[in-house]
């Protein structure tokens, strides 16, 4: 039926378009970004220092993290460091959010917020 195949093609096109849309939306929303920076300062900061210069945990500033592979930093944040005080954040943070945070840490978030 020619009419049906036209409809099918439009539906397929829409499905691909919406998939592409959700892949591009991997970056957290502006509101969630604010929450993540707040969490970084307050929760992560309780061990890594309010200015992230280090405390119980090591410095999270760009000169400390810049040369480390982002994937291993993401893994440490998601799963913690067994036997060490660094807790796992999986459950509170999803991977896309941690990838975003690591990007901000490696380039430096400054004192903007
Ligand atoms: C209870 C204290 C504590 C909290 C809270 C904490 N960390 Fe950590 N973190 C540590 C310690 C201690 C280490 C060092 C682990 C080790 O000995 O390898 C560490 C290691 C890390 C590392 C690896 C640094 C490196 O140079 O290898 C990253 C990245 C990190 N933490 C990010 C975070 C982030 C982001 C948060 C908040 C979402 C957070 N941490 C919250 C204690 C903490």
Could you describe the 3D structure shown?
This protein is an all-alpha fold. The chain has a single domain, classed as Cytochrome c-like domain (Cytochrome Bc1 Complex, Chain D, domain 2), CATH 1.10.760. The chain has 5 helices and no strands. The longest helix is centred in the first third of the chain and has 23 residues. The protein is elongated, with a radius of gyration of 19 Å. The N and C termini lie far apart (59 Å). About 4% of the residues have low confidence. Bound molecules: heme C (HEC).
Order of helices and strands: HHHHH
Number of helical stretches of at least 4 residues: 5
Distance between the termini: 59 Å
Give the bound compounds.
Answer: heme C
As a percent range, the share of strand residues is under 5%
Gross morphology: elongated
Average per-residue pLDDT, rounded, comes to: 86
Number of structural domains: 1
- What class, by secondary structure content? mainly alpha
Superfamily (CATH H level) name: Cytochrome c-like domain
Fraction of residues in helices? 55-70%
Give the gist of this structure.
The protein has 113 residues and is mainly alpha-helical. Helices cover 61% and strands 0% of the residues. It has a single domain (28-107), classed as Cytochrome Bc1 Complex, Chain D, domain 2 (Orthogonal Bundle).
């Amino acid at each position: 039926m020619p009419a049906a195949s036209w409809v099918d093609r439009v539906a397929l096109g829409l499905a691909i378009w919406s998939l592409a849309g959700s892949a591009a939306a991997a970056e957290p929303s502006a509101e969630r970004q604010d929450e993540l920076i707040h969490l970084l300062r307050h929760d992560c900061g309780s061990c890594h220092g309010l200015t992230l210069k280090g405390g119980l945990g090591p410095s999270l500033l760009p000169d400390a993290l810049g040369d480390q592979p982002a994937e291993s930093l993401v893994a440490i944040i998601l799963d913690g460091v067994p036997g060490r005080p660094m807790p796992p954040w999986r459950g509170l943070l999803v991977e896309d959010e941690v990838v975003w945070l690591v990007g901000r840490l490696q380039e430096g978030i400054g004192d903007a917020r």
